[in-house]
Amino acid sequence: MATEQLHHTALTLVDHLPILEVLVPFVAAPLIVVLGSRKLAWPIAFVASAISFVIACLLLLQVLDGSYISYHISGWAPPLGIEYRVDAANAFVLFLVSGISTVILPYARASLEAEIPRRSTTLLYALYLLCLTGLLGVVITGDAFNVFVFLEISSLSTYVLIAQGSHRDKRALTAAYDYLVMGTIGATFFVIGIGFLYMATGTLNMADLAERIAVQSDSRTIRAAFAFIVVGVGLKVAIYPLHLWLPNAYTFAPSAITAFLAGTATKVAIYVLLRFMFSVFQPGFVAQVPTLEVIILPFALLAMFGASLTAIFQRDLKRMLAYSSIAQIGYMLLGIAFFSQAGLMATMIQLFNHGITKAALFMGVGAFVLRAGGSFYHHLNGLGKSMPWTSAAMVIAGMSLIGIPGTAGFISKWLLVQAALDAGWWPIAILIVASSLLAVIYVWRMIETLYLTESTAELQARQAPMSMLIPLWIMALACIYFGLDSDLTLSASRTAAEGLLAGSTGME
User: Fold this and answer.
1) ∠ at Cα 349 (430, 417), nearest 5°?
2) Do residues 254 and 123 make contact, with C-beta atoms less than 8 angstroms apart?
3) With contact defined as beta carbons under 8 Å apart, do 232 and 193 qualify?
4) Between vectors from CA 105 to CA 103 and to CA 109, what angle results, nearest 5°?
5) How many CA atoms lie within 13 A of 456 on its CB side?
6) pLDDT above 50: residue 480
7) Rounded Cα gap, residues 358 and 307, in angstroms
8) By C-alpha distance, which of 287, 314, 334 is closest to 443?
9) Residues 323-363 pLDDT 10s
10) 260-304 residue pLDDT tens
11) DSSP character string of 11-28
């Protein structure tokens, strides 16, 4: 009898995995505040994040074959009720977001203790889980308005998380304020677009929206909605030149928070852009409007070169990596601009590979900040000798950022070049390679500072603690693993690309 009851409970839990993915961190966040214990805050946050990661793995395994999971909130069938929908595209992003969160939390413990007053740590972990909840909710929901709701949950918590960096540098307050203003403008544009869609179709369910938009795609209201949504999400993505909030936000936020945001936030925004362009408005609609040729393609190229050139001349490693993130976002947008399965596949795999790469790099910077007292290049002189393990992990992640064969970054760049050649855009393929050479310059500057520059006499840096080194090396080794064994990422990205290009039929 007990065995049967246990089996029934397990089956019930499996059925409710989509809602549990969001519910676990959402419940854990206020629990941390209610308990008010600094000792319990981190364990609760870690367990909640780890459970979300396990759930994401289970969901991904269920949809790798191209199927999807439809979960009806409170038993109300869509479009009347709210639906959580899981397919290869969002399961892949859920896997990335929850995985990075789970790896960063052990790292964050020592990093935040050094950068944040003890009285603020309890609240910070609660806000961290709220941010995670928002990001996961944005990805998994099948309701357009709920995308906005979860987007605001993650954004509001992010503003406060960035502001926590003011204990080290008061400019974090300005960075948080700038992000607040830009994020609010983006959210306003997005919700206006959702309002236009509701006015034209009378529904907010994404699958239902896709069907209704298909029969009235010539509507000016629909086209206005598309424009507002693309601009609103573009601000969240940090599409060049809507990127002005990102460098300061990444530079002045606490190191662990920067690592988390760099690995997840813009990737989720890219997913939202993909979901609305291809699943809601559908490929046929996108082909009719000049968005790809007039906006996505030129701004992607501007980001690849403009942000890379800016990164070369930075004196702060954190800031250099921030501009590098803008350049890497350009590669993701470029894959969208190809408007092909190969291009979308390249975008999805670049989204994943850049997430783990940039998380590793910012984790390494956090270790340098802890031991050397800052992230300016003069703080890092000669740290390759005194902090060999941290520096070696940074080199591996830097190689992945460039796209050296054998690293995850190479897979992304290779697929992009292939997509460009398949489309007959050989000049774009040359530009992809050329922009990667710019990455060589700023990554080499980092390596030169760590290994080929004499350390300053007053600097006596020690190796980072194991609680930071182990998560850092997990991410660094992930950059190698997914470069050598890309079966999972290629399979997930291929299935995701096929589903996105199928439009509404991929949502049935």
Assistant:
1) 15
2) no
3) yes
4) 135
5) 11
6) yes
7) 15
8) 314
9) 999 999 999 999 999 888 889 999 999 999 999 999 999 99
10) 999 999 999 999 999 999 888 888 888 887 777 778 888 999 999
11) HHHHHTHHHHHHHHHHHH
